[in-house]
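$ ./design --mode recover --in tokens.txt
reading tokens...
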């Protein structure tokens, strides 16, 4: 301390300036932060929050499997969308009629309606063609419904965007399907992208990667 006070003031100024310049020089080599913008996101658009798996447990599995976004729904009610590190969590509701099931996604400003598993619902081509008009997209594949979740027979009946969804009821359902969506990492952008058709459904081959000890 004594030595510092004896330094000439010009030397102190030079020291301070040097430190500032060194700091600036270092900062020039720090890469700029990644700009936000749209990209292809791995999304799960139909995961139940009121079934046999806890929401946080399911979200943890989806995060582990590299998903970017998950829509959590209740049967006939909107599910809360908890925050989860690394995931966009979207509030959703599966409206279940006698035959028709429609998943509705709700963002801050945007909403969309998805016709769920038409083959499992045994919709006639005529009913499908009528009902899909009231939706923005539909599930061509539903993992939970297995073979009856393959709705590709309806593909020629509409030009609406096609999605693939797990319809998660247990840990074993997680990771069978995904829909890639070109959007920014927020619920409104994802929902808008679904409505615009910037989507690509995918079935993930092989056994479900998650293990469910309650089933083994
Ligand atoms: Zn359903
Ligand atoms: Zn469902």
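writing sequence...
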């Amino acid at each position: 301390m004594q030595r510092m006070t004896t330094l000439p003031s010009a030397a102190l100024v030079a020291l301070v300036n040097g430190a500032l310049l060194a700091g600036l020089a270092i900062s020039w080599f720090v890469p700029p932060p990644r700009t936000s913008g749209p990209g292809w996101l791995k999304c799960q658009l139909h995961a139940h929050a009121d079934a046999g798996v806890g929401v946080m447990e399911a979200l943890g599995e989806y995060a582990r499997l590299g998903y970017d976004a998950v829509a959590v729904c209740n049967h006939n009610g909107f599910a809360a969308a908890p925050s989860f590190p690394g995931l966009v969590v979207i509030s959703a509701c599966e409206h279940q009629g006698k035959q028709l099931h429609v998943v509705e996604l709700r963002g801050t400003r945007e909403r969309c309606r998805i016709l769920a598993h038409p083959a499992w619902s045994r919709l006639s081509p005529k009913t499908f063609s009528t009902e899909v008009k009231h939706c923005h997209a539909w599930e061509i594949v539903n993992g939970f419904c297995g073979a009856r979740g393959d709705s590709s027979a309806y593909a020629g009946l509409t030009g609406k965007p096609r999605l693939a969804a797990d319809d998660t009821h247990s840990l074993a359902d997680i990771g069978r399907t995904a829909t890639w969506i070109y959007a920014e990492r927020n619920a409104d952008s994802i929902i808008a992208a679904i409505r615009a058709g910037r989507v690509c459904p995918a079935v993930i081959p092989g056994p479900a990667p998650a293990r469910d000890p309650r089933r083994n």
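exit 0
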